[in-house]
Amino acid sequence: MPIPMILDCDPGHDDALAILLAVADPAIDLLAVATVAGNQTVAKTALNARRMLSLAGVRGVPVAAGCDHPLAGPLEIGDYVHGESGLDGPVFGEPDVPLDPRHGVELIHDTLADAAEPVTIVAIGPLTNVATLLRRHPDDRDRIREIVIMGGSTERGNHTPYAEFNIHADPEAAAEVLGSGIPTTWVGLNVSHQALVTADVLDRIAALGTPLARVCVELLTFFGSSYQQTWGFEAPPLHDPITVAYLIDPAVLTHVRVGLRIEVDGPYTRGATVADLHGRMDWEPNANVGTVLDRDRFWDLMIGAIDTLGRR
Prior knowledge:
The protein is α/β, with parallel strands linked by helices. The protein has 12 helices and 10 strands. Strands 3-2-1-4-5-6-10-7 form an 8-stranded mixed β-sheet, sandwiched between helices. The protein has a two-stranded antiparallel ribbon with strand order 8-9. The longest helix has 21 residues, at about 210-230. It is globular. InterPro entries: Inosine/uridine_hydrolase_dom, IUNH, Ribo_hydro-like.
């Protein structure tokens, strides 16, 4: 049976590829997409989600714009990576997927209420929508099977020296989600930096020869230029789709269960994820933290999804 899933995202180039993977694979039943301010403003991330679903030929999945600022602190957006539109690179037409009039948090709540079984939330942007859902509708905890999160790192950060962007954007929300008691699995930079979009990967996508494949190459080429300019990467890491790939094929990701904390106060480390990998802190294990990616399995799933959608 397909896994019922809600995608909470902030497209964003890597979010865009996560959307494609979620709608292409029969192991996933994508029920709804909520967007949040992060890689761009919430209006732009909602537009970008609609663009990608339109491009994929998917019409029946509702998309709603959620929270436009973090629980605390100012909004910071990732335009230095994703550009003015949030999906710079290709030229998009007007999407034919409508914007749902509900707030994104209420779309998540209604979708959970209507589901016949507990739903997995895949959260690949700042965790503001999910934390707000749990504040407004605490009983929804019982309707969530698991939250799979792209966020954090067991090593260094990217937005700041020790904080990954999604968690730094709203560390209070991340801490509330972590403390909610809902099972969580975290895919951090230490994992996603094993999913580099190398030249051979771009060649495999380009060789598919479909209009969708060409758009994906354009997206990843722009994304790669941003990474090279900002961090000196020769090839960019494709962060977000790993979360969806893990649901499709759990063998994609090796993870360990450890004590995890979110730093909210440190003047230099705010937004850092502190994973007690070696059991030094006497913390009760409270999260699954990813450590190793099966790169070949991941890219076979991702490129296979682009191929499947491009030939529909």
